Amino acid sequence: MSFARPRSAGSALNALSLKEIDQAMKDGLLTPEDAIAILSVRKEAGAIRLIKRAQRELGIRAEYIEKSMFSGQARAEGYRYIAGLDEVGRGPLAGPVTVACVILDEDKPIYGLRDSKRLSEKRREELALAIEEKAIAFSVVSFTERQIDELNILEATRQAMLVAVELMETAPDYLLVDAMDLKTDLPQRSLIGGDDKSNEIAAASILAKVTRDRYMRSMHERYPEYGFDTNKGYGTAAHLQALRDYGPSPIHRRTFVSRFIQER
């Protein structure tokens, strides 16, 4: 099933039912612009709903273009494989810090990439799957709570990022990093709030969070008293109370929960 861009309001595409238009939009066979052109002359109540959805999709695509600015600048300078790097898990009391490195394919856009914390769990999982399917290359690395205790959280994050770069099947030649300067010969650009400014960094944020959240849910099965399935290791009131009641688990960061160890 394919569609040509409508040339007028009287296009044969106007014969499509709203259900067919809806499905064509979902399948990517009808662009938001085309959908709006067709729907603007329709009288059915559902047409307004579909127009609003198409307008939202246009906004998402415009956002994607805006967040391609930094990688576009790097390509204009001659770089080809621009990788985004981000971390999840610097603040929790338990579990690893997880970083991801992603090189996106500019010919296979993934719309809706943004800071992973601003997405629902369901949407993060959907986008993570799309990233894994469409990216030129990606890697995910976790440094354990013991490595964090030995190195400190900032150094553990830096080293994990460097390992992630080394593990890439396609070697990056330029790095976009979320609020971090790395000790590497590769040219890099550090962006504060980068997961809301760069598609590459946003993609890394999503992969890192999905990976770490899955791990913390698995740790909940082993240590259910701490509520890792919901707090993901962060210091919620219930988590702090569990530390008082039970003391630290094997996956707690000793340098983060030292006072609870001393109390016991």
Write structural notes for this entry:
It is built from 11 helices and 5 strands, in the order ααααββαβααββαααα. Helix 2 (32-39) runs antiparallel to helix 3 and helix 6 crosses helix 7 (153-166). By secondary structure, the protein is an alpha/beta fold. A 5-stranded mixed β-sheet has the order 3-2-1-4-5, sandwiched between helices. It folds into 3 domains: 12-66, no CATH class; 69-211, Ribonuclease H-like superfamily/Ribonuclease H (Nucleotidyltransferase, domain 5, 2-Layer Sandwich), CATH 3.30.420.10; 218-263, no CATH class. The chain is flat.
Keywords summarizing the entry:
single chain; 264 residues; alpha/beta; Nucleotidyltransferase, domain 5; 5-stranded mixed beta sheet; flat; disordered N terminus
Task: Draw up the topology in text.
Layout: H1 18-26, H2 32-39, H3 45-66, H4 69-76, E1 82-88, E2 97-103, H5 121-134, E3 137-143, H6 145-151, H7 153-166, E4 174-178, E5 188-191, H8 199-222, H9 228-231, H10 237-246, H11 258-263
Parallel strand pairs: 1-4, 4-5
Antiparallel strand pairs: 1-2, 2-3
Helix pairs in contact: 2-3, 5-8, 6-7
CATH class type of the largest domain: Alpha Beta
Number of continuous helical runs = 11
User: Strands of the largest sheet, in order across it?
Assistant: 3-2-1-4-5
What name is given to the CATH topology of the largest domain? Nucleotidyltransferase, domain 5
CATH superfamily of the largest domain: Ribonuclease H-like superfamily/Ribonuclease H
Poorly predicted ranges: 1-10
User: How many discrete structural domains?
Assistant: 3
What is the typical, i.e. mean, pLDDT? 92
- Sheet with most strands: 5 strands, mixed
Order of SSEs: HHHHEEHEHHEEHHHH
- Tell me what the CATH architecture of the largest domain is: 2-Layer Sandwich
Shape: flat
Strand residues, percent: 5-15%
Distance between the termini: 68 Å
The secondary structure category is: alpha/beta
User: Assembly type of the shown chains?
Assistant: single chain
Helix content: 40-55%
| Tally of strands | 5
Q: Cα-atom Rg, whole angstroms?
A: 23 Å
